[in-house]
# Entry
Amino acid sequence: MKKTFFTITGTKYYYGSKFFEPGMRVQLIKDKENQYDREAIQVNIKGLGKVGYVANSPYTVLGESMSAGRLYDKIGKKAVGTVVYVLDNGILCSIDNISKKKYR
# Structure
């Protein structure tokens, strides 16, 4: 199965990006209450909560990443990912599971 990648952006508005390391697990949660982007997907880490968002702009999506808009309908309410690369302009991650299973 081909890997699906996404970029974490907006980390400067939360805890920064210096603590991210390859192999870290992140949780993606659809942010249906986001007033700026109806396809927003927030990125959370256990113990910290929200640490950023899945990039949804051609200016913030890195490499072969999917934008939040392309990824939004491929996941249920939640998905899990793993940090692959930590770069100066974003964090590249891969999706561990794409499941349309509805979470309660």
Residues 68-71 form the longest helix (4 residues). The radius of gyration is 12 Å. Strands lie at 5-9, 25-30, 41-45, 49-54, 78-87, 90-97.
